[in-house]
Design brief:
The protein has 8 helices and no strands. Helix 1 runs antiparallel to helix 2, helix 3 packs antiparallel against helix 6 and helix 7 packs antiparallel against helix 8. It is globular. The chain starts with a helix and ends with a helix. Keywords: Membrane, Transmembrane, Transmembrane helix.
Length: 179
């Protein structure tokens, strides 16, 4: 299997996770939390983008950000798996949430800043093509911003899904650009 195939599978899994998050797909929480498993696998496969784009200084920095973002996604999904394991126990969820919010060494790297690094890294990879594939780059960058804005400010899964659609489609266009 080629590296590009891992990128495409990662994009597909990542997008499917957002379909779950936006409640477009039924939320099957038994026997596992499908939304976060798809997100986790998709994020890990997105590491493949570090190897498919031209090698230069921007790519090197983007690869570091992307890798840190994937690590943060692993931590975020782990926290969400633990939260999911509480089932209907809202008190336990609230206690865990309170504990995480009051532990800066968990809250910032795994909830606030860390996962955003994945989007920043992939957007920086896309910036390599700003002169030749402006629309695709714009889709990636604006999709990244839309995902963050809809998550942190709007708290709206539908807008997050739309942002993810632009993000994924833009990266797909860059992945299969004419050389």
């Amino acid at each position: 299997m080629k590296t590009k195939h891992f990128c495409v599978i990662g994009l597909l899994f990542f997008f499917i996770s957002y379909l779950f998050f936006a409640n477009i797909l039924p939320s099957f929480h038994e026997p596992i939390d499908f939304a976060h498993w798809f997100n986790l696998i998709g994020a890990c496969l997105l590491l493949s983008f570090n190897y498919v784009f031209p090698k230069n200084k921007l790519n090197s920095f983007a690869s570091i950000l992307t890798t840190l973002g994937v690590i943060a996604h692993i931590g975020l999904c782990t926290i969400d798996f633990i939260m999911w394991s509480f089932g209907d126990n809202d008190n336990a969820k609230a206690e865990l949430s309170y504990q995480i919010r009051n532990t800066p060494s968990l809250f910032y790297p795994f909830i606030v800043i860390g996962p955003s690094l994945l989007f920043m890294g992939l957007s920086m990879h896309a910036l390599n093509f700003i002169k030749t594939y402006f629309i695709a780059v714009l889709m990636v960058v604006m999709g990244s911003v839309a995902i963050g804005f809809s998550f942190f400010v709007l708290k709206d899964g539908t807008y997050m899904l739309l942002g993810c659609l632009f993000f994924v489609f833009g990266l797909g266009l860059l992945l299969y650009r004419k050389k």
